[in-house]
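Reopening this ticket.

The earlier resolution said the output was attached, but the attachment link was broken on my side. Pasting everything inline this time so it's all in one place.
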Amino acid sequence: MTLRELAQTFARLENASGRLAAVRLVTALFARARPAELAPVTYMLQGQLRPPFEGVEFGVGERLLIRAVARAYAASEADVERRYKRAGDLGLVAEALAPAASRTRLTVQRAYAALLAVARASGAGAVERKLGLLATLLREAAPLEARYLVRIVQGRLRLGVGDATVSEAIAAGALGDRRKKPLVEHAYNVRSDLGGVVHLAYTKGESALARMASRVGVPVRPALAQRLASAQAIIARLGRVHAEPKYDGFRLQLHRDGARVWAFSRRLENVSSMFPELTEGVRRQLVARRVILEGEAVGYDPRSGRILPFQITMTRKRTHGIAEAAARHPLRLFAFDLLHVNGRDFLPVPLRERHRRLAAVLPESKPGPVVVTGALVTDNAAELQAYFDDMIRRGLEGIVAKRPESSYQAGARNYDWVKLKRAYQSKLRDTVDVVLVGFFAGRGKRAAMGIGSLLAAVYDPVGDRFRTVAKIGSGPSEEEWRRLRSALLQHASATRPARVDSLIEPDHWAEPLIVVEVLADEVTRSPRHTCGKSGSEPGYALRFPRLLGVRTDKRAEDATTEQEILDLYRLQHREGAARASARGVPAGGGRAGG
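Inline output:
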């Protein structure tokens, strides 16, 4: 496949109207690719070179990329910078400067290999080597090809195609039926490598995807929990439950293969170097040689043993001063699941057996920073409520109740796991995670900062899009407002991003990448927001949202979903109606927010 064919498909995807059109374009793209090209095409479609857990990054800043464009086309850096400021897109600048007819007919594989060489250049003289490799590649590229090569390196591909759309295209093309998308998603959730899944689907077929199992060193996408309003509702829905404390920390997967240990974040990034006491604890404490376990890492005060707030735990996620941070705020990992032991995949195994084996591979006789989290097994609502109340008194978030007979559903959010964080009363007392898609310049005092409020959205996995749910104007300090503005401008978009569904036009659009935690009074109906909106019916919004902090541990697709907002609305009004009925008065409805 030529790079020109890939670039032409990218251009069509930019202008595609609707998800189904995008699915058809990606399906046709895969049909034209040879087996060896399938993985590179997929990674480039994702705007990356390898799966996230491998940590392959370009290491090319904006200034270096401007220099590469200038060198490739014998232009001055000042001219490239002027054009960039005018166009707002360095890819369009490269397209305009590139000669109309390139001297070389680039293939996808050759371009991909050159991009990998840029990313892997390291050591003395690495900057100059990256610059030379990039300039050479751009010189050989046709104008449209140059546009997308620059955007890939800059991390601003903007095709409006998410992993869910690509998975549907794989199902349609390799398996012959878009409705087989769950099988593709299963394989992707277990192996976290979409390029590898595409290659397997087209070369080995449906049975190979169905056999996909956990592998040490390759992160599994974390299972997710639904919400219910009370202990009574949980027992009514699940029956007998295995209930665990819900800690407010970093969710980590720890993998061990002999002396080698990895730590992966919920974003599937390799963060092993950030948590040396945990990786050493796994190496020292586990009695099995090859293991994948999952848990919540929380900071604690070594003098009192008290668990520290999430904001303090977050300070441990750093690349410098790690030893000092570990001494000041050491971590404990409360392990709650076991996914693999000595070559056996434990994902299909019932939770009760996974937890029993977890205790066996992490015995109490080997103390250290990694411990098995406690649990209560009960089918009694009063007992579950008492356990929840005890966790709240201890300063924890609440509990997670799980079906003892359930398998581990990688990447899935269903009622096998249910979280209970607080009672839902007349106001929304739980936090939600939303994705920032734009911001408004602000008035008065905030006009000087250039930012006054944020436009936020939730994820719709069915449509693979982000639908607006809130306009956030309170919570951050002045310094935090400035940092948010700077971060959003790094992902700025001149027009509404293709995956964003919004009736509101902010002063500045941003690609849906930054996740923040928000506390709001309640969920209300709103004609201004698209979350849950269908036809002429109003959507749903968060009323009086306050920003609590940025969730760097979550991808945009890990944010609260549209369906969760609808469920919260129903839970909130069901609880309100029950209380009103108990008092003998009619229940009131929420007024429109936004």
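Reporter confirms the inline version is readable. The chain is about 40% helix and 20% strand. The first strand starts at residue 224 and ends at 227.
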